[in-house]
Amino acid sequence: MSKTNTPDNKELRRMRTSPFVSFFQFPVVWMLVGALGIILANVSFSYLKAPGSIILTLVESAVIIVIYWLVMKFLARRPLPELPFQWRAVSEVIFGAAVGLIFIIVSTALIVLLGGYSFKWSPENASSVILPIITTQLVAAFVEELIFRGLAFQAIEKKGGSLLALALTSLFFGIAHLGNPGATVWGAFSITIEAGLLLGAAFLWRRNVWFIIGLHFFWNAIEGLLGIPISGHPSSGFFTVEVTGPDLLTGGKFGLEASIIPVIISLLITIPMLLFARRKGHLLSLRQDPKS
């Protein structure tokens, strides 16, 4: 008997997909819808919670995760291997936190040894310092990572491959910090390299958003607890920081992120991460679907 030319199940699903559904499945569209939803949630919660409200911070973080999950599941129509909810999520957060902690401690120690920073214990009440820093930086980590590495990175990667996604999200991440207090072109370039490339490479290596959220959170939280400005935003930490070296060494008013030290260290971390990602087959070529 001759085989009839009937469409397979995949083609039938494609034929039945309405133009409306197809529109929202386009990567740029679900990226923008997801980013807008996360930003609106962040703005809404900012009116509800007082600084240091840990309960509302956890609720906001959960809402942001749900928005991301809904967009990826029902608009992008893709699985979410990067967002596991098993014990692996806990281990990835801890691993990322360790990397962030080491990165900041080593960078700060080198600047101190080179005469750029000196620290004096501040008599602030511990709770008044810890809670505002933790709540602010936890939300920042969720918002920025799910927008830049979660949505934007994977939307660009789907059409242009991993390296284009890494380059563009790193550039956009640096540009996004130009509006911060004390920001300069050098500061934005530093953020592009040490945060954009490092966090993008970390995502490519682990393919896990919990890892980069842990890394991002501990990076900023440790800076704040040390009293170092976080990307231009002053921090009332456990210490008062006296800046005595040149801006290229200390970062000046913008803080540690504008120092040449973390830029160099980040490159030393980023390169091995990219090599590990390549070895694992996590670097996707042009138009290679991440789901495949």
Description:
- The protein has 292 residues and is mainly alpha-helical.
- It has a domain at 87-279.
- Helices cover 68% and strands 3% of the residues.
- The chain has 11 helices and 2 strands.
- The chain has a two-stranded antiparallel ribbon.
- α3 (27-48) packs antiparallel against α6, α5 packs antiparallel against α11 (260-279) and α8 packs across α9 (209-226).
- It is globular and about 60 Å long.
Q: What are the main properties of this structure?
A:
292 residues; mainly alpha; two-stranded antiparallel sheet; 2 strands
Kindly estimate the percentage of residues that lie in beta strands according to DSSP. Answer: under 5%
Helix content: 55-70%
Widest sheet, order of strands: 1-2
Low-pLDDT segments, ≥5 res: none
Distance between the termini: 34 Å
The count of strands amounts to 2
Radius of gyration from the alpha-carbon trace, in angstroms: 21 Å
User: How many DSSP helices?
Assistant: 11
Structural class: mainly alpha
In N-to-C order, the SSE pattern is: HHHHHEHHHHEHH
State the shape.
Answer: globular
